[in-house]
Design a protein that fits this description.
The chain is an alpha/beta fold. The protein is about 25% helix and about 25% strand. α2 packs parallel to α8 and α6 runs parallel beside α7. The longest helix is centred in the middle third of the chain and has 19 residues. It comes from Streptomyces sp. 900105245. Pfam families: Esterase.
Length: about 375
């Protein structure tokens, strides 16, 4: 059974004004010479049993205009009325913009990994591999641009041969599966390998027992060197809402710190089993003192087996006091059996991705 893809778009003027306009669906896809696109849907004149042809306009754009009385319906797009697009149904409601843009694909939901070897950081004067996951449609629908998710400990994300303890996060397999199910947006994932100075690079302040405190320099490397490279060489969406960061342990602390101190860059952050204990919870205390919000969305989690659950709950409460709303712009997951390891993070990753890459944001705003 196909999942429903909910669309949250900005309406034109008041709801009554929006309802006065007919819905126009624009599909951006190069169907190839001699091929056409059709639309099937839940309400007449659309049907699920057979398709209605879409009209080619120019370039790779196809359009279908609904009759004036049709404002609430589900739909799906097909090539030659035979091959269905991957993912869930699209859902249109009267409250949405009357101009809806989608960027489907029809091939196998499987992305690919490429590696930038020995990527140089002038800020840190060191090199590391950067592993990039390109989503399933990247090579098929060249009209589409993608949000970018930056993740730390990159050698642990995609390949058990390089992962700590031989256990990977299975980021690529999880992304592929959730995209195929219509459960998340497609996204480019940039996995940044750590270095021998992981503690220094991932910590925002100096701990009396462990040192550290080079997080701002590391984040400068991402913002000033790596992100411009990614945005130049790949088809990315560059808005704050389309730029995310996720990490675990010290990488979780770092991700929260990045979202809080660089909210003009990162709109959503995922902080898994975060080391909020670092430097006597100095960062948490700074969030507690501040009144107001920073990034758009926080994902927090921790396990019940020596995984910082108490400190994570305390950080959650500080965010709630700052105005975040549980279930809306803040999601906190407590995993009773969770441990501080890759297998626990891999198991919770689908929940994090579903929250940070909500499928309703997949539709392009007109």
């Amino acid at each position: 059974m196909l999942l429903v893809l909910f669309v949250a778009l900005v309406g034109w003027g008041t709801p009554s004004e929006a309802q006065a306009d007919t819905v126009k669906i624009y599909v951006h896809y190069d169907a190839g010479w001699g091929n056409g696109l059709s639309i099937r849907g839940s309400s007449a004149p659309l049907r699920w049993a057979s398709g209605t042809s879409m009209t080619w306009t120019s370039g790779n754009t196809w359009v279908w205009e609904a009759p004036p009385n049709l404002s609430n319906f589900d739909f799906k797009v097909l090539v030659n009325d035979q091959k269905w697009s991957v993912g869930g149904n699209y859902k249109v409601t009267a409250a949405m913009s009357r101009s809806i843009h989608i960027y489907p694909f029809f091939g196998t939901p499987k992305g690919r990994i490429i590696t930038l070897p020995d990527f140089f950081s002038p800020q840190l004067n060191n090199r590391r591999n950067v592993n990039i996951y390109l989503p399933p449609s990247y090579g098929e629908n060249l009209a589409k641009n993608y949000p970018v998710l930056y993740m730390h400990d990159g050698q642990n994300l995609f390949d058990a041969r390089t992962a700590f303890g031989g256990v990977e996060w299975q980021v690529d397999e999880t992304m592929d599966r959730l995209v195929g199910e219509g459960a998340i947006r497609e996204a480019i994932v940039v996995g940044i390998n750590n270095t021998a100075d992981r503690i220094g690079e991932y910590t925002p302040s100096t701990d009396s027992a462990y040192g550290g405190g080079e997080a701002d320099t590391y984040l400068d490397f991402i913002q000033q060197t790596l992100k411009p490279y990614i945005d130049t060489h790949y088809r990315t969406l560059t808005s704050v809402s389309d730029t995310l960061m996720v990490g675990s342990s010290l990488g979780g602390l770092l991700s929260c710190y990045a979202g809080w101190t660089r909210s003009s860059v990162y709109g959503s952050v995922g902080c898994m089993s975060s080391s909020f204990w670092w430097d006597d919870e100095t960062f948490s205390h700074a969030v507690e003192v501040y009144q107001g919000k920073k990034p758009e969305r926080f994902y927090l989690d921790a396990g019940g087996n020596n995984d910082g659950a108490t400190e994570t709950a305390r950080f959650r409460d500080e965010l709630l006091a700052d105005g975040y709303v549980s279930g809306a712009d803040l999601l906190h997951i407590y995993d009773p059996i969770g441990m501080h390891n890759e297998s626990s993070w891999a198991r919770r990753l689908p929940k994090a991705l579903a929250y940070l890459l909500p499928v309703e944001w997949e539709i392009r705003r007109s």
